[in-house]
Amino acid sequence: MTEGLYLRDSYLTEFDAQVVASEGPDLRLDRTAFYPEGGGQPADAGLLTAADGRSWAVQGVAKGPEGIVHHVEGPTTAAGERLHGSIDWKRRYAHMRYHTCLHILSGVVYHRFGSDITGGQIYLDRARMDLSIPGFDRSIADQVVSEVNEVVARGLPIAVRFVARTELQTHPGLVRVDASLVPDVEELRVIDIQGFDAQADGGTHVRSTKEVGMVTLRKIENKGARNKRLYLTLGPAPGP
After folding, report:
1. Cβ neighbours of residue 6 closer than 8 Å, sequence gap 6 or more
2. Does the global pTM surpass 0.85?
3. The domain defined by 3-87 carries CATH number 2.40.10.120
4. For the chain (length 240 residues), average pLDDT per consecutive 10?
5. With 80 labelled, which of 88, 137, 154, 212 sits at a CA distance of 20 to 30 A?
């Protein structure tokens, strides 16, 4: 299986790895900092470069049964070759900020209403989250987003920790999605917004809530009898 370097360091933008399998335009490496699409977060983009200067644009990254697969442009190389990977940082950092924003929103909703999320998606310039809360309207949404911005302004540190899956028995609130979506692994990765909220997650995040920047509620849509979809945008990044 591929070692996911992004799981421990979301700020890692360059790395060295070895090709372990090459099939058409798909390369599987022994380790990678490229985030594979999943959990509402798009895949990373960037370059893989060989020692002789040959390079491949990474156009897609996905989890496969034997590891993480990098879909690249053009003829590929053979197993055993060493490559240098570089991440498109602007794209990665935008996803990190929006992903952390959604975690803060999820935390506010969970602590205020005891409600889980029913869906979400991250883009380069916006994010959306689906909620199922009776009586949820624009005035409540505005209050929730105001609380999100209060958490952002506090500049709370964000840590990654790993816990045994059995901890869900005593801390079920670590999971905010349908339990069937939780991977069948012995150890869960937890994103801990210290002093506020912690939840299991496999995505990339910023180190401090302050990096998220000002959150603006752009639109609310009705998705069924109870589901509401919130669209959010962020102000300029304050910087890591």
Report:
1. 12, 32, 33, 34, 35, 44, 204
2. yes
3. no
4. 96 97 94 96 97 95 95 89 97 98 95 85 96 89 97 98 83 70 75 95 96 96 85 86
5. 88
